[in-house]
Amino acid sequence: MWIHFALFAALLLAAALLGLRGNAGRRGSRVILVVAFVAFVAFSSMRAVSVGNDTVEYHRVFEEIKATTSLQEAFTVSRFEYGYVVLNYLVSRITDSFNLLLLIISVFVYGSAVLFIKRYAANYSLAVLLAFGISAFYDFTLFTRQSVAVAIFLLAVPALMERKLVRYVLLVVLASQFHVSVLLLLVVYLIPYMRLSTFGDWFKWGALIGIVMFSLSWLLTRLLISSAYYGHYLHSDYADGGVRSATVLLIVTRIILMLLAATCGWNAAVEADPSGRTRNLLALAVADVAMVVISLGFNLLDRLEMYLTLPFAVGLANLAAHGERPESSYVSALLVVIAFAATTIFFLYRPEWYHLFPYRTVFEKGAL
Predict the structure, then answer these.
(1) What is the rounded distance in angstroms from the CA atom of residue 315 to the CA atom of residue 30?
(2) For helices 277-294 and 241-262, what crossing angle results, to 10°?
């Protein structure tokens, strides 16, 4: 666990030296984005095969694809999407190193993440710290295929913001070649139409999202029962009661963070941003919380939440950055502390859910 605290300390130190305070006019130094990028690319790409939930399986698939003699044969090796298989096949023609594949993926994934923060965060330091606190950076290491899909989805967000439907759809379809679940995010294109300025707005959209997600939960449960592709998830750890208790804590944490950030002035922050970016990010944040809540009925939906984790962090960080001093400084600190504490509790008491710690590098003797 020491590396978890070391990473947080490094980011916190960088934020303190570069200036944690910021607003829409002074977003802070970009150096913290470089620090986060380098630290997590190294963390993700140099891990041993034993680190991470599915790394062993990804390593097995890479080794089997490496032994194939054609791309057509490589497609028969696993149930993984074609894009991920093609990436493995191309890399295996160049090198035998699985960790080089992880490096290529990590550079792309974390590059997309810091680019998203650079584009939309009103305060780089706060956005990075909050993203770390809610485990957004760790998720990219835990879910390799989906992390590529998330990275492409983050690149599609500008198309969503600018209402460019064709470009958004094309990027989502591209992302589906690495994790087909992203196709469900096509409906996210409608989210910028959400207005959340009154209680009636919250009730209307909350009820609509709830109905849609519960319907989706019911539908997916029945589809997976008969699906050879995803049916195995219903008999995995993702469907057991322990993971459900994690979902409850995740829901509580997300709601507390959102309510806390909202004290800095939800409507004021939205009205202060004529570009509409803050409104859209907060709409995505609301969708993120809704997705986590509905995952109580269908546990795998909390994997879909990963697509909106970074928009959630940046949206709430922007709320806090627009608040009045010194109250917003206190809120910012509380957001980071609560998020970091919740994630640390998960790591300490349920390490078997992540297999991240104890962390081992590929260079250690005897590392698998």
Answers:
(1) 18
(2) 150
Number of separate helices (H) and strands (E) present in the chain: 17, 0
Sign of CA dihedral 352, 356, 357, 363: positive
What pLDDT, on the 0 to 100 scale, is given for residue 355? 81
Separation of first and last alpha carbons in the chain: 19
In this predicted model, what pLDDT tens digit does every residue of 88-129 receive, in sequence order? 999 999 999 999 999 999 999 999 999 999 999 988 999 999
pLDDT digits (tens, 9 = 90+) for 283-302: 888 888 887 877 665 555 55
Helix, strand, coil percentages, rounded to 5, for the chain: 75, 0, 25
Beta-carbon contacts of residue 67 (< 8 Å; ≥ 6 apart): none
List of residues 6+ apart from 210 with CB closer than 8 A: 290, 293, 294
Confidence of residue 25 (pLDDT cuts 50, 70, 90): very low
Query: Do residues 43 and 3 touch, judged by C-beta distance below 8 A?
Result: yes
H-only helix segments in 176-262: 199-225, 241-262
Helix, strand, or coil (residue 82): helix
Instruction: State pLDDT tens for residues 141-157.
Output: 988 899 999 999 999 99
| DSSP 8-state class, residue 229 | T
Residue 299: predicted pLDDT = 55
Of 202, 220, 199, the residue nearest 304 (C-alpha): 220
For tokens 């849609």, what's the residue? 212
Q: Which of 41-45, 137-141, 219-223, 258-262 has the lowest mean pLDDT?
A: 219-223
Task: Find tokens 């439907």 and name the residue.
Answer: 165
CA distances from 163 to 68, 141, 149, 280 (A): 43, 31, 20, 11
DSSP 308: G
Spatial distance between the Cα atoms of 268 and 281, rounded to a whole number of angstroms = 14
SS3 10: helix
* Kind plus residue range of the DSSP H or E element containing 346: helix 327-349
CA distance 236 to 53: 12
